[in-house]
Amino acid sequence: MAESVERLQRRVEELERELAQERSRRVVGGGNGGGGRVRIEKMSPEVVDSNPYSRLMALKRMGIVSDYELLLFDYDKVELANMNRLFFQPHQAGLSKVQAAEYTLRNINPDVLFEIHNYNITTVENFQHFMDRISNGGLEEGRPVDLVLSCVDNFEARMTINTACNELGQTWMESGVSENAVSGHIQLIIPGESACFACAPPLVVAANIDEKTLKREGVCAASLPTTMGVVAGILVQNVLKFLLNFGTVSFYLGYNAMQDFFPTMSMKPNPQCDDRNCRKQQEEYKKKVAALPKQETAQEEEEIIHEDNEWGIELVSEVSEEELKNSSGPVPDLPEGITVAYTIPKKQEDSVAEVTVEDSGESLEDLMAKMKNM
Questions:
Q1: Are 174 and 197 in contact (CB under 8 A)?
Q2: How far is Cα 328 from Cα 325, in angstroms, rounded to an integer?
């Protein structure tokens, strides 16, 4: 029995060494031995169709590095019900979601560095480690991450991410799909500058309701991979614009699949936010804005058009000063601040006198008869 235990321990150690060597070589795929691809340390600058990294090289020359790191946090396991997400595969059922995600993504791109954590971030014992990895888990160890993405399915986890990012001053993006699966949204949250998740919380959060009590036994929320794909695409597009600094990065962008409606808005932080770190970040942001140099706008003198021109054109009024004066009437005495739009012209003294006709006393019939005889 003791020999069997020792053999098993040696076998476990051998497997651990093989796994460590495989990860150090960044070998991906391969199945039953072979077919994997070793991580390319140096990319060729030649841009040709046969070079799978040619497009990445072009991106690198635009300021995008070839290496990047993903930190994944989740504690669920893959179930067959997750297959409609178009990401997991049936043979991954039973694996932790972070482990399955790493396997899938490594097959797509072996040049990405991964750090996976299979735990619940909402627990007290894990929250501090979660915060530590946000503030020290950048590509260069000891530096914070560039961006935090929230792709969770419950408000408790969102509030946990919100609390951590407010305390650290970490920018993050929140995303979600409605329970009926026909709408979703993304939201950029910059602590102190824009509203955090606690500034205008959903009713379930504001009322301090335990969301677990809202789920009916045996009933699962609807799930449409199309809606999730649209929201995920919008989220990634916003991430690219934010990290690469181009285009307009939406602070809030919604998606309504029923009407193909995309509402967008921006929300300012709530000065009475329940999160004290959010209020603290707001004060820091105000100080930062106040310290910025003020831009002075120079007042430009209005140019006189056509005063002197090479064609000798002049603008001359066809009305004389005397005519203009005679066409205006006296200005009435009005309270200060009130002016008249126009004045009543004076009556001309030399106007034509009215012509009057003397009454002959004849009737209309007599006058008509005279006209006929003329």
A1: yes
A2: 5
If the chain, 374 residues long, is cut into consecutive pieces of 10 residues, what is the mean pLDDT of each piece? 61 61 40 45 47 42 56 90 79 90 86 90 94 90 91 90 96 90 92 92 65 58 82 92 92 92 91 94 94 76 64 65 68 72 64 61 79 79
Helix H or strand E segment including 222: none
DSSP 49: T
Phi–psi pair at 279, nearest 5 degrees: -65, -35
pLDDT of residue 272: 92
The Cα–Cα gap between 28 and 330 comes to 95
220 is catalytic: yes
CA distance to 302, 313, 314, 318, per residue, from 305 (Å): 9, 11, 11, 20
Query: Would you give the distance in Å from CA 337 to the centre of its chain?
Result: 48
The H-or-E segment that residue 184 falls in is strand 183-189
Phi, psi of 194 (to 5 degrees): -120, 165
d(CA 134, CA 161): 10
Q: Cα–Cα–Cα angle for 122, 188, 273, nearest 5°? A: 65
Determine the number of helices (DSSP H) and then strands (DSSP E) in the chain: 10, 7
pTM of the model: 0.61
Q: How far apart are the first and last CA of the chain?
A: 153
Measure the CA–CA gap between 326 and 159, rounded to whole angstroms.
78
Strand, helix or coil for residue 282? helix
Residue 191 in contact with residue 261, Cβ under 8 Å? no
Q: Which of 151, 165, 196, 220 is catalytic?
A: 220
Please tell me the distance from the alpha carbon of residue 333 to that of residue 301, in angstroms, as a whole number: 35
Q: How many CB atoms lie within 10 A of CB 359?
A: 6
Identify the CA nearest to 101 among candidates 123, 111, 86, 122. 86
Residues 267/195, Cβ–Cβ less than 8 Å = yes
- Residue 19's Cβ-count burial label (10 Å; 0-12, 13-18, 19+) is exposed
In the structure encoding, which two tokens stand for residue 331, read together? 């200005």
Q: Are 143 and 69 in contact (CB under 8 A)?
A: no
